[in-house]
Write a structure and sequence with these properties.
It contains two helices and six strands; from the N terminus they run ββαββαββ. By secondary structure, it is α+β, with helices and mostly antiparallel strands. Strands 1, 2, 3, 4, 5 and 6 form a six-stranded antiparallel β-sheet that branches. The model has no long low-confidence stretch (mean pLDDT 88).
Length: 107
């Protein structure tokens, strides 16, 4: 007689950690804003164009090139279209502490 050993695993699968946000070409690590529209700035790369324009962790990017943004890849796609049109700056609508401001972000 053959006996088949069976092991039961009672532990639940480990939760999958959300992926670390990729840093965009302008030095921003962005994630969807759970508190509302736009993208939350998780990190600003030192000496990047975003840092030089005063963006900081906790800011919310609402629009790029007058288009609402909802994902980091969409944000990067907009930057690419602005670059391919020959422009060297993109208009960003950002919010900090409920204060909205516009800034020209060098590409």
């Amino acid at each position: 007689q053959e006996q088949v050993a069976s092991a039961q695993v009672n532990s639940a699968p480990a939760p999958i950690a959300p992926p670390e946000p990729k840093t965009t070409s302008v030095g921003l690590a962005l994630v969807p804003n759970a508190a509302g529209p736009g993208l939350l700035v998780k990190m600003v790369k030192p000496n990047s164009s975003a840092a030089e324009k005063g963006l900081v962790s906790g800011d919310v990017i609402l629009e790029a090139d007058n288009k609402p943004v909802t994902s980091s890849s969409q944000f990067e796609e907009i930057l690419g279209k602005v670059r391919s049109s020959g422009r060297t700056t993109v208009l960003i609508k950002a919010m900090r502490n409920d204060n909205v401001r516009f800034l020209g972000l060098p590409l």
